[in-house]
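User: Design a sequence. Structure:
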């Protein structure tokens, strides 16, 4: 498999793919059979002129405004659509379609923070809105909020067809479309920090950490102001057991983005590796204050408390990890260790049994037997 197909299929299928569905849903150009390009252009200009005249004559008619928005978006004039959408929402404050288009248009002109509110409004009312979830995920990615992006993409994917064949063709089609987008990205930004970042992700997938490290270093040199790049570089250092370098990069990511809970979490893990559970506790607690549902941070917090000898305090943290991530065997093993040190043989035996059960299931998933 080529670099393009591997990196896009694994990392970017959702990132680029659903765009294929968004054009027609929002009034993408519909070519009339038999019309030459000149006729199509003249037809568009005529429709635009009529729609603009109608909007001037009926500025309080939301349907007229949204019709003009559709034409502007069809032509790619997203900046012209935004004020019309705002006006339409004043007239119809519960119009989810207008909120969705406003969020998407904010995204398309690079105003990712602005796009969050209208897209969240749609998702709060209709969590199954795949288009709103997709663009919400893109905005979170652009804002270095990868965990929330993943949740949005998961919701978008959950609305897909139940047919195995249909899902296969969607994945295949999206991966090919993504490859085409990647080709354009390479052509437009061959030496950009984004390409170094993308190559770093590719080398990570290929289990080539040294090459990935070089690409992330190059990306950081070009854009030292981006927390996401320092985070990626720190993660690469951590995987190579270069703990001091990893800690420095995670701290820089936190300096640039104090609410980057994954950087706090990873810094906590590095500090545990450096036998510094006291400072690790602070990082895990900060991560959980920003993202209370981060199961891995509860595990890290429980482990840090265990290493500090605070067994009673560690137990509820590890139990919370089990609640959030019931398939993870590790918290059961730590609980076994704690109960054994507390001379609670009954609970220790229970946790050891649960650890073995979950570990066996996990190993089976990693190495499925051929039937």
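Assistant: Done.
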């Amino acid at each position: 498999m080529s670099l393009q197909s591997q990196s896009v299929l694994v990392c970017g299928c959702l990132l680029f793919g659903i765009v294929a569905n968004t054009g027609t849903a929002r009034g993408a150009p519909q070519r009339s059979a038999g019309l030459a390009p000149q006729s199509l252009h003249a037809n568009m200009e005529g429709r635009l002129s009529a729609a603009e005249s109608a909007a001037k004559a009926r500025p309080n008619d939301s349907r007229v405004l949204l019709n003009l928005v559709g034409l502007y978006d069809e032509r790619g004039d997203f900046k012209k659509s935004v004020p019309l959408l705002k006006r339409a929402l004043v007239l119809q404050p519960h119009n989810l379609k207008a909120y969705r288009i406003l969020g998407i248009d904010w995204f398309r002109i690079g105003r990712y923070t602005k796009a969050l509110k209208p897209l969240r409004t749609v998702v709060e009312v209709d969590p199954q809105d795949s288009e709103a979830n997709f663009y919400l995920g893109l905005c979170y990615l652009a804002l270095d909020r990868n965990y929330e992006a993943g949740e949005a993409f998961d919701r978008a994917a959950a609305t897909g067809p139940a047919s195995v064949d249909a899902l296969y063709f969607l994945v295949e089609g999206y991966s090919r479309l993504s490859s085409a987008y990647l080709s354009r990205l390479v052509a437009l930004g061959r030496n950009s920090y984004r390409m170094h970042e993308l190559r770093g992700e590719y080398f990570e997938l290929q289990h080539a950490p040294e090459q990935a490290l070089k690409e992330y270093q190059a990306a950081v040199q070009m854009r030292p102001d981006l927390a996401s790049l320092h985070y990626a570089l720190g993660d690469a250092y951590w995987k190579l057991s270069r703990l001091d370098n990893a800690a420095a990069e995670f701290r820089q990511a936190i300096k640039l983005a104090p609410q980057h809970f994954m950087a706090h979490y990873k810094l906590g893990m590095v500090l545990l590796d450096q036998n510094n559970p006291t400072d690790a506790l602070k990082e895990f607690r900060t991560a959980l204050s920003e993202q209370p549902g981060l199961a891995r941070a509860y595990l890290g917090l429980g482990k840090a408390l265990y290493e500090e000898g605070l067994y009673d305090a560690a137990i509820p943290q590890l139990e919370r990890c089990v609640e959030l991530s019931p398939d993870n065997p590790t918290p059961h093993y730590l609980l076994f260790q704690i109960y054994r040190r507390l001379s609670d043989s009954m609970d220790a035996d229970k946790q050891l049994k649960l650890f073995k059960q979950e570990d066996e299931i996990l190993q089976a998933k990693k190495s499925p037997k051929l039937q």
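The chain has 20 helices and no strands. Confidence is low (pLDDT under 50) at residues 1-33.
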